[in-house]
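Now for one record.
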Amino acid sequence: MATNDPIHIIGGGLAGSEAAWQIAQSGLPVILHEMRPARMTEAHKSGGLAELVCSNSFRSDDAAANAVGLLHEEMRRAGSLIMTAADIHKLPAGGALAVDRDGFSAEVTERIRTHPLVTCERNEISGMPPEDWDSVIVATGPLTSPALSAAIQSLTGEDALAFFDAIAPIVHHETIDMDVCWRQSRYDKLGPAGTGADYINCPLSRDDYYAFIAALIAGEKTDFKEWESSTPYFEGCLPIEVMAERGPETLRFGPMKPVGLTNPHRAEPHYAVVQLRQDNALGTLWNMVGFQTKLKYGEQSRIFRTIPGLQKAEFARLGGLHRNTFLNSPKLLDPQLRLNAAPRLRFAGQVTGVEGYVESAAIGLLAGRFAAAERRGDAIPPPQPTTALGALLGHITGGHLSGEGEGHARSFQPMNVNFGLFPPAEPAPNPGGKRLKGQEKALARKRALTSRALRDIDAWLSPLALQQTA
């Protein structure tokens, strides 16, 4: 393999864009193939690279005590394009990192477009990549085209697993009644771009809440096609009406929990709260947090306008539902993200069985670095499983398996990064000699995990420092 031969990447989402950036920053040429806008998907709205099709939140940015915040920091230290663009276009969101989705996509698109070692070709790869492409990263996401899915299935002999993912509605700010609603983050928490008043809160009384639950359960839902009827939901992105069906109190302990908030308009305590998070830099669009749904459009407008403060709401986008697919990665991929049946192919992003924007980009980052090292004739190990990057990689390439046999691989499901994927770490002894209990002990354990992870990721990155070419 000549180092001047380009590495090909199929898919210009978060994972593909990150992989292209990592390869190009190492000084190697890359061709990024993106079929949009010539061929759109059922979830995308534009031809921009790294378009955010669901929430605009990258979730917690707390690198000291939260696994996804730790992943943010590890990626920043690795020169991540996705994290750079997110930090430039961040919005107020309490302790979370939320972004202006249009500005974020435009930033990624422009940086990829102007990089001297990246060629972006707007074409669909409608089957197995040509044989003379000796290094390919498939980052086609959960909406991989049917032709490419069929080619992969034919090659591997494995059926891709599948699950449904749901999208939350977005509301025009000017149509929210601020005489009923108020601005506040839970516990007044500050975040990357926040003030402690980063969410709009809609209060529900006990009667409001139970009437809303009844309406959700009775509302007309999107019908499944016959071949979709056995497809499971991903637990981290359940439609709100599915949560409601699990029990009338479920939502009060989920996205509608009433804790940490004080209504300045009324002394009476609220029984539940609907939160909206800013979705664009202008502050004109607000996302209904946790309100992904499969209700039909007419039902969404009718039912969501029963929420106090949203009686006159106008929706910039209503919720939706689409079928995602992912590989049986523990069986099909090696620790370098190569397909066992065809090692010239690597996979990255949600198609590998990670869930979440940042997790998808993280696997793109690793795939890009692995492919670049291989092209240069180097051999780099995966990051330590004590790091967020290594723990996530371990989950999808073998750490999930607890023994031999088909049954273990078949239980593989999409996963967000979380501390349950990390080897345990004991906190340092308390200097005062006081024995920690409860929340203090849990926080100390998390901080032990994150401090160890950052030491280990720095060690992994140090000998791999990429020559910055742009």
In short: Residues 7-160+327-425+450-464 form a domain with the FAD/NAD(P)-binding domain fold (CATH 3.50.50.60).
